[in-house]
Amino acid sequence: MITFDEALALLESVVRTLGAEAVPLAGAAGRVLAARITARSDSPRVPVAAMDGYAVLDASTRPGESLMVIGEARAGAAFSGLLGAGEAVRIFTGAALPIGADRCIMQEYAQREGDGVRFAEGYGPGWHVRTAASDFAAGDVLLEAGARLGARAMVAAAAADLAQVTVIRRPQVAIIATGDELAVPGAAYLHSGRVPESVSFGVAAMAEQAGARIVRQAIGGDCLPDLEKLAGAALAEADLVIVTGGASVGEHDLAKPMFECHGLDLVFSKVAIKPGKPVWLGLAQGKWVLGLPGNPTSAMVTARLFLTPLLGALQGQSIRDVLRWRRLPLAAPLPANGGRESFVRAAWENEGLVPLTNQDSGAQGPLARADWLIRRAPDAPALAAGASVSALAFEQGG
C-alpha cells in the first residue's frame, strides 16, 4: 500500500485539466475560470458620492453659511451643469460628483431652506467621495485562472463588465453502486435482505458541489457481464466513473473486474488510511475511474479525500485549492491512533472539535453530524482537550 500523500501526488501528476468553454455570466456560478478576468474599465469610472448629502466645493463652504442648491444628482442621472463657489448640488450615494465639486457633506449636517442649504459644525473630516479607479482600474486582474466562481467571485466577475467568461468544462460524472443487497431508497423495506442504496446520493451531492454534473446514477448487482455492460455505458458518457463497493478481494468484489475488459490501467489500488483502505484510481478507455469502498462512512471520507481533488484537478485546481487543512483545537480528548493514518470524524462544539463516539466505517447516522475530519498520523499519541489538530472541513468550502 502507498501512503495518503503518495496517492495524492500520483493523482496530481497524472490528471489533466479538461478543455475550456465560454459561458454566459449568468450561468457561470460554481464554475472554475480557465482564463483570468480583467476589468474592462475603471471602477468607479468618475468620482462618486459615498453618502447621501450635498456636493460642494470645499474651499467656498463654511459652517452656517448658506449655499444655493442648483440641482440634483442621482446614480445613473448625473448633474449636467458646472458647480461654482457658493453653490451645492443635492446628491445621492453612487451619483457622479458634479464638475467643480470636490466634497460630499452628509445630509445629517444639512438644513434645507428653500433653494438654499446650510451645514452645521462638525461635518468633517470625511469628504465622502470615492475617487475614480479607487476600487480597481481598467486592466486590473480581478480573478485569476483557477478561481471558482462562488458568490463573492461572481460579484467581481460581473463588476469587470463582461457578458461571458471562459471556464473549464464541467466534469461529467457517472456513479455506479454495486451489490445484490442494494435497493432504491423507498423500496428496500419491501424486500428481505435489501438495504437502501445511500452512498451514491452523498457522493453525487459532493461531486456537484465540486462542480461536476451527474450524467448517470445506477445500481448494479453482483453479475460481472451485467456490470461490464454498465461500465461500458458509463465510460461512453462520462469523464469520470465512480464505482462504490466491491473493492475487496472476494469473489463478489467486482469493481475492478468490471472495468478490466475496458482496458483498466490502475494508478493506485490501495491506500494506507483508515477508513477507506480499498480506495483505488485508474483509467479505462481514456476516462477516469475512481473506486470507493461500499461502507457509507468509508465512501464519504475517501470521496472527500480523493474525489474532490480529482474533480479539482480536472478543472485546473491544485490539491491545495481543494484540501484546505486547518489547525483547530480539540474540545474533547482524542485517543491514541493505530498503525494506519486515520481520519477521525468530528463535530464542532463548544469552540472546538469533538470526535464522534461512533467511528464505525458503516455508520450512516453520525455522518450528518460530522463537520470535520481530523488527520492523525500512524501511531499518534492520545491528545487532551485543548490540543491543536490538523482538520479538514467535511464539505468543500466549509
TrEMBL record:
<comment type="similarity">
    <text>Belongs to the MoeA family.</text>
</comment>
<dbReference type="GO" id="GO:0005829">
    <property type="term" value="C:cytosol"/>
</dbReference>
<dbReference type="InterPro" id="IPR005111">
    <property type="entry name" value="MoeA_C_domain_IV"/>
</dbReference>
<dbReference type="InterPro" id="IPR036425">
    <property type="entry name" value="MoaB/Mog-like_dom_sf"/>
</dbReference>
<dbReference type="InterPro" id="IPR036688">
    <property type="entry name" value="MoeA_C_domain_IV_sf"/>
</dbReference>
<dbReference type="InterPro" id="IPR001453">
    <property type="entry name" value="MoaB/Mog_dom"/>
</dbReference>
<dbReference type="Pfam" id="PF03454">
    <property type="entry name" value="MoeA_C"/>
</dbReference>
<feature type="domain" description="MoaB/Mog">
    <location>
        <begin position="174"/>
        <end position="313"/>
    </location>
</feature>
<dbReference type="Pfam" id="PF03453">
    <property type="entry name" value="MoeA_N"/>
</dbReference>
<dbReference type="GO" id="GO:0046872">
    <property type="term" value="F:metal ion binding"/>
</dbReference>
<keyword id="KW-0460">Magnesium</keyword>
<dbReference type="InterPro" id="IPR038987">
    <property type="entry name" value="MoeA-like"/>
</dbReference>
<protein>
    <recommendedName>
        <fullName>Molybdopterin molybdenumtransferase</fullName>
        <ecNumber>2.10.1.1</ecNumber>
    </recommendedName>
</protein>
<comment type="pathway">
    <text>Cofactor biosynthesis; molybdopterin biosynthesis.</text>
</comment>
<dbReference type="InterPro" id="IPR036135">
    <property type="entry name" value="MoeA_linker/N_sf"/>
</dbReference>
<dbReference type="Pfam" id="PF00994">
    <property type="entry name" value="MoCF_biosynth"/>
</dbReference>
<dbReference type="GO" id="GO:0061599">
    <property type="term" value="F:molybdopterin molybdotransferase activity"/>
</dbReference>
<keyword id="KW-0808">Transferase</keyword>
<keyword id="KW-0501">Molybdenum cofactor biosynthesis</keyword>
<dbReference type="InterPro" id="IPR005110">
    <property type="entry name" value="MoeA_linker/N"/>
</dbReference>
<keyword id="KW-0479">Metal-binding</keyword>
<keyword id="KW-0500">Molybdenum</keyword>
<dbReference type="GO" id="GO:0006777">
    <property type="term" value="P:Mo-molybdopterin cofactor biosynthetic process"/>
</dbReference>
<comment type="function">
    <text>Catalyzes the insertion of molybdate into adenylated molybdopterin with the concomitant release of AMP.</text>
</comment>
